[in-house]
Amino acid sequence: MDVGWWMSIKGMVLLAALAVGGFAALLSVLPGSPVWRIFNPPMTVAITSETGADPTGAPPEPPRKFEIITLLARDAIPAILENRVAFLTGVEAEAQMAPSDRVIGVSIGNDHRAYSTAQLSSHEVVNDTIGGVPVAVTW
Amino acid sequence: MVFAREIEGQTLTFGVSGKLIMNAVVMYDHQTDTLWSQFLASGVDGPLTGVDMKLLPSQLTSWAAWVEQHPDTKLLDRTIGRGSGRDPYTSYYSSNSAGVLGEENGDTRLRRKDLILGLDYGRERIAYAFKHLADEPVVNDTYEGAPVVITHDPEGGAAAAFSRVLGGRTITFEAVDRLAMRDVETGTTWASLTGKAVDGELIGATLEQLPSLVSFWFSWTDFYPSTELWEP
Fold first, then answer.
1. What is the interface pTM, i.e. ipTM, of the complex?
2. Does B208 share its domain with B120?
3. Using CA atoms, how far apart are residues B227 and B124, in angstroms rounded to an integer?
4. Looking at the partner chain, which of A68, A89, A127 has a beta carbon nearest the beta carbon of B13?
5. CATH number (domain holding residue B170)
6. How far apart are CA B144 and CA B147, in angstroms?
7. pTM more than 0.80
8. How many domains does chain B have?
9. A4 to chain B, minimum CA–CA distance in Å?
């Protein structure tokens, strides 16, 4: 029996299935794609503002709803942890910076620290302690 | 934005969750696995949901302007972490794009990427546009009954907010130069971005800095659609 026609159709079906499967697999790792969203559905949270008493004595605001979208895996952007921070001063610091470079500056007591926003863009968060106060510098 | 890591009696370590709320970072903490919204400054999911983070005063400015105010500053070593030090968001700052998720609330009182200093008074929020502050770098304002002064350094691109109440009396400020202001009542000179009295009768005094944040206009209005906008 000649099964060539069947083999070739089977081959095409297999190829098509592989292509579809590969495309779906690709989509599932592409953040924000429809398949990614199936595995990482948006989550809705209700937030009540609790930033101090209202001076006008008005009733509290009703909770607002916010959608949390998952875009990347946890730690895909690596925060800088406290055991990795190290600081430069004077000419060593100047050597790494141009005058117009943007920084987040923080002063607690006499402890003044600057964090380059370009560096923060790759990490989003630096865990540090300034003037004895544990802080998170975020961008 | 800079936050205290001590929350409800424990010191937390923060990481990046990979999640966003309206284009703004959502963090998680290693100790309790709570999700924390940067912009809302509170826990949004997990054991510490609804707990507020304490926002600490900080200054977004240029390296030169920061060193001018704090010559003995430390700099986080830029060789730490990955990357060349090139900012991957460079084109995002200057483009008109509202971020990966787009914006919800197209408030046209300012341009989308105009920078503002936003203040949060419980349920009332007010924004001061940098382009307005450039013409008036020291603004004496009263908002919800609280006397405040808003200061701006156009060269460094920084802005700050302080209470104008000191030891029970309300004081009024006028600009002296880029980084200094003077109070009308005593003639004391103050560093306008740090709120410290540097010369005159009140030398050594410090104004209470109010939590505020520098933001794009579209992000601020996405989170706070009913915000007021200060007009000169």
1. 0.82
2. yes
3. 7
4. A127
5. 2.102.10.10
6. 8
7. no
8. 2
9. 50
